[in-house]
User: Fold TatD family hydrolase from Candidatus Anaerostipes excrementavium.
Amino acid sequence: MIFETHAHYDDKKFDQDREELLSSMKEHGIGTIVNVGSDMETSRWTVEAVKRYPMMYGAVGVHPSETENMKPEDIELLKEYSKEEKIVAIGEIGLDYYWNEPERGIQKKWFEAQMELAKEVNLPIIIHSREAAKDTYDMMKAADAEEIGGVVHCYSYSKEMSRNFMDLGFYIGIGGVVTFKNARALKETAAYAPIERIVLETDCPYLAPEPNRGKRNSSLNLIYTAQAIAEIKGISTEEVIAVTEENARKLYRMEGK
Assistant:
């Protein structure tokens, strides 16, 4: 079964058909979904949602673009959320330099704080990094991130940079962008990274793959990503699905669940 490592079913784009969509996953080969918080509100939503949906697990954390108004009490609340049975990671956390706000010092402060939280509660981290490769890697090294483990989600850097992250023991999250004709760097990374270090994701409702590019994304589109990786690597789609599911269970420490 396909393992969806990064989704945002809390998003309002799913308000009209969320129940129907999630209940259809199994019949379409989607076995497990990790819903990922991006701020305090969506982290709280995730904590509640994993109780309602049997196939759903969750991550709690604050995205770098949402750190402007973070408070120390938020770290304490995330710590409480992380103790819930089906919460399997801290994320998504990291650095995003595409936008000028919040200022980089604020992003770095809360990235570091959330990595320390992950270490304290013994959960892997989900890294969001956009146009910030060196600072992200340097901060991960400084925080001994290899002791935490996790995934660089929606990977967007070079294949050479992927080696640095993999050397820290991190997985590379690949989504629908790998199906785009102009996604040369990601295709190169997909070819370069061992299949044992790759996990499948959508980042839905964003980044729908071909042939649904531009539409609302969902985990149902993961098959296109799996097919693209299979073609790049010269292996079967079934092997991509099987190995990436095993990888995801190792990533989120869910073997046997």
In short: The mean pLDDT is 97. The chain is about 40% helix and 15% strand. The CA atoms of residues 39 and 62 lie 4 Å apart. The longest strand covers residues 87-96.
